[in-house]
Amino acid sequence: MANDHITEADFERFRDFFYRKTGIHFDVSKRYFVDKRLQARMAATGHPDFRSYFTELRFNPKNSEIEQLINSMTVNETYFFREQYQFECMTEEVMDELVRNNINMRVPTKSLKIWSIPSSSGEEPYSIAIFLLEHWPGIEEYDVEIISSDIDTAMLAKCKKGIYSERSVQYLPKNIKDKYFKYDALTKFYHLSPDIKNAINFTQVNLADIKQTRSYRNYDLIFCRNLLIYFDDISRRNAAEVFFDALKPGGYIFLGHSESMSRISSLFTVKKFRKAIAYQKPLERGL
Question: How many CB atoms lie within 10 A of CB 24?
């Protein structure tokens, strides 16, 4: 007979396990959220109780269930052009400064790299691409490579489809919707143009796994908005080090409006632009 009841001790054991795997810390206030998703995964996999399910997670690491569980536990809520002032800051000031930095460092390239993490359902990286095309004249001269990453493989699959509800595009101007989306009146969904979909390279990455993050290097700009609020202090510092190593000297990172790198790490320098605050990896001496 199935018993999906999860005790306080079960919750604590699972919370510690999930934190070690992902760096995401669930506060006690999230107990109901965690229990419901655990119970759903237990039912889906046919495990009669928490002990059986947890044993499978711990001792069968090749099982795809841990991936399914992570997908279930990560929250993805966003829309196009969210916190638009940061995109305006990017196109009005930051991109030109990054170009100047490369010139000053004698970097022989006409390319810039942007990392967007988390991908969520794709609105963030696609917003970056659209905003650059619409508002940064340098896009005609420079090749901008945009990589977007997430721990949730199900959401990455959704990103690649590029199909969005009215809610996702509600803040887009009509001319942008008409230019970059095709509306399906039957399904009432918006289909992103293939050119924009092909502009983003989506990858799966776990910020808590150094084996995965060490290949992310030489980025000029990082967007990591509203992810670190799910981490505890140690995981935030570890993530800050990952981003620091991923950036070129002089590169910038944007965080969410309620996040502050100054409270997490002393590695970065605060830079106040006209419309937004960004955090810079210091330039090398003499530049």
Answer: 22
- Are 99 and 138 in contact, with CB atoms under 8 Å apart? yes
Q: Could you list the beta-strand ranges (E) of the chain.
A: 111-116, 143-150, 163-164, 181-184, 189-192, 200-204, 219-224, 247-255, 269-272, 277-280
Asked if the bond preceding 118 is cis, omega within 30° of 0, the reply is: yes
- Quick check: 96 pLDDT over 70? yes
**Average pLDDT of 159-164?**
97
pTM for this structure? 0.81
* Residue 100: strand, helix, or coil: helix
Q: Give the torsion sign (CA, 250, 220, 203, 44).
A: positive
Tokens (6 digits) for 104: 């000053």
- What single-letter DSSP state applies at residue 142? S
For 257, the 3-state DSSP assignment is coil
**Region 75-102: what's the mean pLDDT?**
92
Q: What is the mean pLDDT of residues 95-111?
A: 85
Backbone angles phi, psi at 102, to 5 degrees: -65, -40
Whether 70 contacts 21, CB under 8 Å: yes
Residue type, 230: Y
Burial class (CB in 10 A: 0-12, 13-18, 19+), 253: buried
Contact assessment for residue 196 and residue 159, using Cβ atoms and an 8 Å cutoff: no
pLDDT at 287 over 50: no
CA atoms of 212 and 239, how far apart (whole Å): 13
> 229: pLDDT confidence band, cut at 50, 70 and 90?
confident
